[in-house]
Amino acid sequence: MASNDIYDLTIIGAGPAGLFAAYYAGFRGLRTKLIDSQPDLGGQVTALYPDKYIYDVAGFPKILGKDLVTNLVEQAMQYHPAVQLNESVQTLDRLPDGTIRLGTDLGEHPTKVVVITAGIGAFTPKTFKRPELDQWIGKGLYFAVRRKEDFRGKRLLVIGGGDSALDWALGLVDYATEITLIHRRDAFRAHEDSVKKLLASPIKVKVFYELRAIRGDSQVREAVIFQNKAQTEEVLKVDAVLAFLGLVSNLGPIREWGLQIQDDSIVVNTKMETNIPGIYAAGDVAAYPGKLKLIATGFGEAATAINNAVTFINPSASAFPGHSSSIMEHKEKAAEKAAAKAG
Ligand SMILES: Cc1cc2nc3c(=O)[nH]c(=O)nc-3n(C[C@H](O)[C@H](O)[C@H](O)COP(=O)(O)OP(=O)(O)OC[C@H]3O[C@@H](n4cnc5c(N)ncnc54)[C@H](O)[C@@H]3O)c2cc1C
After folding, report:
1. Does a structural domain hold residue 343?
2. 301 alpha carbon to ligand 1 midpoint, in Å?
3. Closest ligand 1 atom to 36 CA
4. For all residues of the chain together, what is the average pLDDT?
5. What's the pTM value of the predicted model, to 2 decimals?
């Protein structure tokens, strides 16, 4: 559906970077819209690890993914941005008056500036791509964990040697009755600290093992694993198989918008400007030398992108927002005065 309602700023992607960008845009007085193709706010954190603890967000020694998202949403929603979920941005073009028009699968969104916080693009966990294994999806085979409670009292087989596999195996120790983790090599790609924790945990770790078959009825009952050195098979009694094989991600339509793309990211300068005026990028999707794809860095980039976008909309505005502590105090006092005058 076409729209003539031009927003100051539209944010594509409501992960941690997009949510913090929405907060900052509201704080800077911009009329803001947030669009995400997922059904829920929170990006990768909500979709892939809501029940996992995050330890490296400034100010939180440890916080559950879903709690971080709740806080980010509360912070962003103070300024009531428009939120469009289940809507994927497909096209971007510029109208003769300079307005940018975003086209989604559901309609059009005109805006003065755009901040792209699309993360790794549309993402889905990799499956086995082997029908004899993938047929167990929904019957005890999982490629992501949404709720730890689903695994309480169960015997689990965890597959993988990366951060997701180790984090989840460790995160489910207090829920499952027994966990076996198999990995096809003896070298793990996960954080060193997680590997140390894994080896010190009650989890049975079997290296050089692969999944050969899953057996059961309406539910997973057994997993056949295969030692790829000795070429021997073993049968494990399990209630669930959790395979962490990585993510398939795709920037998709964003590649077609004329932005400078490097690998799967958008090249930005130190102001988070892309090569197209009025279009900024932040978070996992933004690329520059020395880039680290972390929540912490995404927050800083979002603040930089928004504050510079303010000067694009209003060239006489300052990029520096001032200190939120003093600005909010001033705003609260002004509101109190206005209320006293009215009353
Ligand atoms: C298992 C796991 C554990 C992790 N642990 C940590 C950790 O401990 N610490 C840490 O700092 N980082 C961690 N990360 C990485 C962290 O989650 C990412 O760095 C962070 O989510 C990036 O945030 P973002 O907002 O840039 O993008 P994302 O979280 O990827 O959000 C981007 C959003 O954009 C949406 N989108 C994409 N394209 C479109 C489009 N065309 N139209 C509409 N919407 C679109 C997507 O649907 C998505 O919701 C972990 C990642 C994983 C997978």
Report:
1. no
2. 14
3. 44
4. 93
5. 0.78
